[in-house]
Write a structure and sequence with these properties.
The complex is a heterodimer of chains A (265) and B (245). With 265 residues, chain A is of the alpha+beta class. Chain A has six helices and ten strands; from the N terminus they run ααββββαββαββαβαβ. In chain A, strands 3-2-1-10-5-7-8-9-4 form a nine-stranded mixed β-sheet. In chain A, a hairpin with a 4-residue loop joins β1 (90-94) and β2. The N and C termini of chain A lie far apart (77 Å). With 245 residues, chain B is an alpha+beta fold. In chain B, the strands form three sheets. Chain B has a nine-stranded mixed β-sheet, with helices on one face. The N and C termini of chain B lie far apart (101 Å). The chains are: A alpha+beta (265), B alpha+beta (245). At the A-B interface, α1, α2, β3, β6 and α4 of A face α2, α3, β1 and β4 of B. β6 (154-157) of chain A pairs parallel with β4 (134-137) of chain B.
């Protein structure tokens, strides 16, 4: 009697073991492979979609290095000139020289060097004609988001009398430590993200973790939704730059939705 | 037949060490080893799934993107290169002309810092105070103490400026608002020794509260320390540009 019960228990255990140790992990691995495959397809689709923006020009022969360099220099200067016509503050990202500049009407207000950047190959896939078409004019900012408040306005009610005024005098809190990370969506098609260069995990506060979680969640939800509807997800390329915290904060607060961005790869 | 088989097996086991064979683990232990390894592997799969698709999948996808690269060996068409170089030089000249050749002041309202430039060279840097970003809500009116961003010009230069207190200065103190030219509106010394007017009631001026320099405490004006203000006042002319960001 005891032996049969033991056998039954064993069978139950081995069934649970099969489900949790074999079946589900196998499904997860298959899902990861499927996701990666579909993601790769979505990147390829995006590359093709952008390449179609230019009329088919025979670009089978690669340009000489010097000419390619000059073409990019010219596109950059043209874009900066076009941005100078805008009244709002703009940002210039020179990825070749690792420099980010805040500009207004062509005047450089602040310049900062960055030591690290993540640039996906998507941006390096552009043919010269697509590059010229894309980067010879500034990009429009379509969305902002970040770990810090863009304009930290404090609302204060007018005091009734001088006694209340003296009592309610506000002190400035200089001890507050923030983790600065923000992003902007350009031309509704790709993202530029800035992260403070001093970015150890222990420096991240709850707001920063929530911000990252929200961004990952949005990407994942959209991609999984598309996959469930048998559609290839929309790939949103992202350039990430690591710059000093003070500049990351100043640039975020200085830029407005009317601002523009110029990029030189 | 069976007995002889058993005896034979026993003798083989007894002779095993003599034959140089080592005793193996009982089959139970092996099974547990496999189970533990399976659990660890499954845990890695369970925990690693989300980080994998968020961080590794994009890297794998990126690997398959064809990168455009220039031909390092090819020699460029000299005529085309010459034309491009001329066009670039002309564009550079145009961009260069956009920066004021004389003097200009740049104010960073986030960091509360200023930079003074003369002939495109930085000649002075320091701390200042800008708008507190307080929204003061009175009974019928609201004021937001914010330094206006963008590009401005010095419209006027004042020495020993007298502050004509606006309505909010009284509302903020919980005092009744006096008439437009009431003596209580005029205060000497509050704005320091110099002031540069940049329009719409905003000024760059000195302060009695030097300890607040570097902090956002003003009602929209830009406060600068006495020494730095003197240099700025002497350098900047009427018409000089002030860029605020």
């Amino acid at each position: 009697m005891e032996v049969t019960e033991m056998k039954k228990e064993r069978r139950k255990g081995s069934f649970a073991g099969f489900i949790f140790l074999k079946a589900i992990p196998l499904l997860i691995v298959l899902a990861a492979v499927a996701y990666t495959t579909v993601y790769t397809l979505s990147v390829k689709n995006k590359v093709n979609e952008w390449q179609k923006k230019v009329e088919s020009v025979d670009e089978t022969t690669a340009l000489p290095q010097e000419e390619w360099q000059l073409i990019r220099d010219k596109a950059f200067l043209n874009a900066r000139l076009a941005m100078a016509a805008n009244d709002s503050l703009g940002l210039t990202l020179n990825l070749q020289d690792s420099v980010v500049q805040l500009e207004t009407k062509g005047v450089v207000l602040r310049q900062v060097k960055f030591s690290e950047a993540e640039i996906p190959n998507f941006f390096r896939s552009f043919s010269p004609s697509l590059y010229v078409k894309t980067f010879s004019k500034p990009f429009k900012i379509s969305e902002f988001g970040g770990t810090i408040v863009k304009e930290p306005i404090t609302v204060k009610k007018a005091p009734k009398d001088s006694i209340e005024a003296a009592r309610t005098k506000t002190e400035i809190d200089t001890s507050k430590v923030e983790f600065v990370e923000w992003h902007m969506l350009l031309n509704k098609s790709f993202v530029i993200s800035f992260v403070q260069s001093d970015r150890d995990f222990d420096k991240m506060d709850k707001t920063a973790l929530n911000y990252r979680y929200d961004r990952y969640k949005t990407t994942l939800t959209n991609n999984v939704k598309d996959m469930l509807h048998m559609k290839v997800p929309v790939y949103v390329p992202q350039i990430t730059l690591y710059i000093p915290k003070s500049e990351a904060k100043s640039f975020y607060r200085a830029l407005s939705k009317k601002g523009e961005v110029v990029i030189r790869l | 037949m069976e007995n002889s088989d058993i005896n034979n097996e026993k003798s083989q086991v007894n002779e095993a060490p003599l034959l140089g064979l080592v005793e193996t683990e009982p089959p139970g232990k092996k099974r547990w080893g496999r189970i533990v390894a399976g659990i660890i592997l499954s845990l890695i799969i369970y925990v690693g799934f989300i980080p994998f698709i968020l961080l590794v999948s994009p890297v794998i996808a990126d690997f398959f993107v064809p990168v455009y690269s220039a031909d390092l060996q090819a020699t460029a068409d000299e005529g085309r290169i010459k034309t491009l170089k001329t066009e670039i030089r002309n564009l550079e000249k145009k961009v260069d002309k956009l920066t004021p050749g004389n003097m200009y002041l740049v104010i960073n309202t986030t960091e509360n810092k200023f930079s003074l430039y003369k002939n495109r060279a930085l000649i002075l840097e320091g701390i200042c105070s800008t708008g507190s970003l307080v929204s003061l809500e009175g009974e019928n009116k609201k004021w937001v103490f914010k330094t206006p961003r963008g590009d401005h010009k010095v419209l006027g230069k004042l020495t020993k400026p007298v502050w004509r207190k606006p309505d909010w200065a009284f509302v903020e103190e919980g005092l009744p608002i006096p008439s437009a030219n009431h003596p209580s509106r005029f205060e000497k010394g509050t704005l320091g020794d110099y002031a540069l007017v940049i329009g719409n009631g905003y000024m760059i001026h000195g302060t009695l509260y030097q300890r607040f320099l570097g902090l956002p405490v003003t009602h929209g004006c830009i406060r600068i320390g006495d020494k730095d203000l003197k240099v700025i006042y002497e350098t900047m002319q009427v018409g000089s540009k002030v860029f605020i960001y």
